[in-house]
Amino acid sequence: MKKLCLLLMLMVASFVTMAQQNSTIVGQVEMVRKGYNLYFVQGPDKVLVSDGELSQILDEDTFGTYCSQRRKYKLGNALKIGGWAGLGGGLAIGIPGFYLLREHVYDSWGGLGCIMFMAGVGLVLEGIALIPTGYIMRGSSAKKINRIADEYNQNTAVSYRLSPSIMPVNVPQSQGNVAYGMTFSINF
Hints:
By secondary structure, the chain is an alpha+beta fold. It has helices spanning 2-27, 51-57, 60-103, 112-156; strands at 30-34, 37-42, 45-48, 159-168, 178-187.
């Protein structure tokens, strides 16, 4: 009779474990960041989460943080692109200006070469300042958006487990010194 009960408990535990695995695979949706947007990933598919859905899923403070970090990411991207454009434009204007300036040594800083050279230097300095600023802004906002996605994933990750257990019993009256049972655990 004990063996039959043990076999029955093992069968029930295996069916529950299979059902749990199937339900967590189908029901679990993970949120990830790509660029400055959040996506739901389920299997091979990525679905963009709209702002309306996010405002319902996230609390008000977290949604406000997401919106501000998304604006900061876009601004960092614009600064980075503007910095690279300024650096390239400054080199494209400054180098010919330098050669024109060198040819007209006696112009006393008044000709077209001087204007081109000074504009090129200004654009190169602007690019040197904007490029790291853009990368830093983009990186810090991406990190905070990732943190929002991670918090969502941790809050929705609830798992449970039902498994058979065999525990030794140190009671002298027990015949086999073993107790059979089921263990149920919930992880939040």
